[in-house]
UniProtKB/TrEMBL annotation:
InterPro entries in the cross-refs: Integrase_H2C2
Protein's recorded name: Transposon Ty3-I Gag-Pol polyprotein
Gene3D superfamilies, sorted: 1.10.340.70
A family per Pfam: Integrase_H2C2
Domain Integrase zinc-binding: 51-90
Organism: Trichonephila clavata (Joro spider)
Gene name tied to this protein: TY3B-I_1183
Lineage: Eukaryota, Metazoa, Ecdysozoa, Arthropoda, Chelicerata
């Protein structure tokens, strides 16, 4: 995921811009041996940025649980990850 984050154009755009509504993304060491993941630290829960290549897999992992509907699925994914088009992607 760390390598894909570095290639993700949406992440690069967010890091380049400094807007008041932008997520607060910081590089954090994760795992052993540590790798650096960009994570949103603006909420109580630290959420890694989901690069485009991993979004379908992230959604499918949550969706494989008993399907609670679009709203609950969005809430579950948003509690653990973040990316700009999440609402539209999960609603598909």
């Amino acid at each position: 995921m760390a390598r894909e984050q570095l290639k993700d154009s949406q992440l690069q755009d967010i890091l380049a811009l400094s807007c008041p509504n932008s997520p607060v993304l910081q590089p954090l060491p994760v795992g052993q041996p540590p790798v650096t993941l960009y994570c949103d630290v603006s909420m109580d829960c630290i959420r890694p940025f989901g690069p485009e290549m991993f979004r379908w897999e992230i959604f499918n992992n949550q969706h494989a649980l008993p399907y609670p509907g679009v709203r609950a699925s969005l809430k579950t994914v948003a509690e653990r990850y973040m990316w700009p088009s999440m609402r539209q992607d999960v609603a598909l």
